[in-house]
């Protein structure tokens, strides 16, 4: 599926486009923060502190300044005193937006074109990609992440502290319980997901609601860093307001008048988030950061109406390429802005934050980074035209291959979906492609050019070794062997087999092919096995395979067990 955004203005010009702790309540902690003195002087460095707040699944409508019934006084004030991004685009799902924020590159250039990175996949943001925190650290920044990662963790090198962050506190997966911090990916696939650095944060967990817990951690980072000595980059990626819909009861009291229970809980979650950001901004001022800080606020994708979100008047939702899925709430707040209290209607995309923030931080942008983002600081701060003229949302070859071909067979590509919208048609009800075929032609040519630069899709099969029961009940890295990584990245072909014997002798109930399934070679009769209750691979299950590729038979000395076997060719 191809998706290219194109803004249209009468087509006059063509543009392709609970509590903090047992002793300390949330309210008491807020009061203590406000009463604390400021022990720091104003920062002397010309490099600004950068606080990037990424929220999860907040709908375009779900902020006060877009007319929502949800009360967001902090967000409204910060946006009103800063610059509202009213032509700002992200990706329709979690991992794609986060990968493009971290790398400044489109999905077609990282191999993450398809869907999200799932907890059971041996996949992560490719290690050869230079990340935003790494570039800022090279520029002298202290880099910290709090919150949701969702960019893979199958091996240690994928973790945030291996990708440029000095510290990390948060979750590795895409969602989970806001209080217990547990997540299930299916029957028998449940585990704990809260980390401090590279270890499970059991000792720091007091059953806190994650929005409050992450805010408290972020403020502790501010309190323990000297803003005069070193610039700070804080990436605060909230779990809120992603499902499950959970929130402390006192926030629900504000929305008794909302009849839909999902919407009511969702609204309460947004209000809790708004209060958390209020506390964060107080801390920035108290600890001497504020006057030299750039705050960026962004949702990672559109809202999900089935989980209480609203993107009105935009069409579509999270996981779609309609405006409601990819046009996001966003603003920049900073005393360093030239034109405060304005709206930026220039085209801005989430990939643009990489070059924009690195340049602001006086870092270097090497040519070999091959960025798809642009430095849009002058467009935001001064109201100048954006250097960005188009957005490639995605080219995903896994979804739909052309059966009959599109324009000129789509240059031999896949079926093409092109979105063109005007300000007068936010519902995207009018198909303009028939009216302007020459525009469609130019867009298809642009898509073909983009596709020539695409790298193969990384979307490996589920690996049952990811099960937390093999890792002390915790979701975490499970790849230990370099040979396994070589196989994943193009080494010898292999298959993953799932065995369920019905006795001493039986037939395999299912088989899941690995990455190199196009190389149909029969497996070796000497597999490596992971027996129940063990966390290492070894040839001890005594499974014997016949040399048949699409159907296996075997005998086993062990009865009534379930395991996974890796067979190398």
TrEMBL record:
It comes from the Eukaryota. Pfam families: Sulfatase (PF00884). Residues 48-360 form the Sulfatase N-terminal domain. Keywords: Calcium, Glycoprotein, Hydrolase, Metal-binding, Signal. The keyword Signal applies. InterPro entries: Alkaline_phosphatase_core_sf, ARSB, Sulfatase_CS, Sulfatase_N. Its cofactor is Ca(2+). Belongs to the sulfatase family. This is Arylsulfatase J. It comes from Larimichthys crocea (Large yellow croaker).
